[in-house]
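Hello Y.,

Per our agreement to keep a running log of every chain we model this quarter, I'm adding this entry. I've kept the format consistent with earlier entries: sequence first, then predicted structure.
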Amino acid sequence: MRKKIRNSLSIKVFLWVFAALTVCSTIIYAVVLAVLPKQYQITSDRQMEQNVDALVSEISNMGYDDGIQKIYNFCIQNNATAMLIDDKNTVNFGEIQSNEQTVATSTISTDIAFSDRGTECMLVLSSVTQAAERISNLMLRFLPVVFFIIILLSVLSAFICSKVIVTPIAKISQISKRMTSLDMTWRCDIESDDEIGVLASSLNTMASRLQTTMEELENANAQLTADVKKFQALEEQRRNFFAAVSHELKTPLTILKGQIENMMLGYGDYQNHEKYLPEALKATEDIEYLVKEIITISKMERMELQDTLQNVSLLSTVNETIETLLPLAKDKNIQIYQNITIDISVPVNRNLWNKALSNIIGNAIRHSPCGEEVFISLQSFEQGNTLVVENTGVFISEADLPHMFTPFYRTDKSRSKATGGSGLGMYIVKTILDLHGMEYSIQNTPKGVSFFLYLN
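Predicted structure for the entry above:
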């Protein structure tokens, strides 16, 4: 029980208020019981003195008989007894009853003179009252009732005070528990101008600021996590890139080395230099092409485009690229259809833009079977104007689609030079378009494969 009281603010406030009110009310009643009868007696005596002075002043202008009647009436009105004493006799007014309830509170003596007598008389007045004693007895008689009322009012007052004081504190306590678990989705709805209201308002402000700070921290953490993942992906991509470079260079270098060594030693058919020197030159050219591509990518990754951008015509650059790639298309009997009806300007680095277009359209031609078609058009989608390059007769597996912009990635796992290039073409396109902040994607279509470049 003690532990429950010790751990409950509501019970402690109730008991403290109840005890304080009960003790204070009892003390007040005791003080009233002790002081009220005496004060009443003092006040009654003072009033009696004032009344006697007024009587004496009034009788001094009256005759004896009228004065006697006046004194008699005074005694009746003021619950008093009187004796009028002169040289000849004594006249009594009223009679003091001898019992324990009757108390003579005061006696006043004064000389008076009547208008029809030459000598003065002595008037002795005694006030008789039972009021003071009755007040004390009455208060003692009602003491149990008064004490019951004191207890009842103390209980009610203590209950109300405990609710009024403790309820908002209990709410704040519950809120503080939620704050310890970093739950800031609450609001303290205590509306008052006192200290508790100020505390509630401060908690609301603090919670709002903490919520904002937590959201900022969460956003910063999410951004940091994304940056870390991006960095890890870049590191993984860089490692894969160098691993692929070493692999791509290893094969032609091995071939070249073997051919040169065999020709130098004059083994068998390798004595025919006219046959193997062109093959060695082709391997050298493959290595040179691959190195140039790698150097190009390295330069682009460090390039600042802002000062090299210029508005170029989409239609003109597409036509120039098609004109350059026509011999390749004719070799494979591939028809190219250009359907750009509205010319637009794009802010780009001209050299990089031309290379990206050449790789996109060139890939569409190289990876299409002979006799197929390539369609180039400018279409309007929700994203805005979109350059679409579609080649027919070929599809990319769903497993390969996410890796189409990975360096040295080829859908032909044999990595035959007859079916593809170095595997850097689309990675170069990705690098160029990323530098320009352009979005892009590759998707299968009912006819084949389409490259989407979202211009605005």
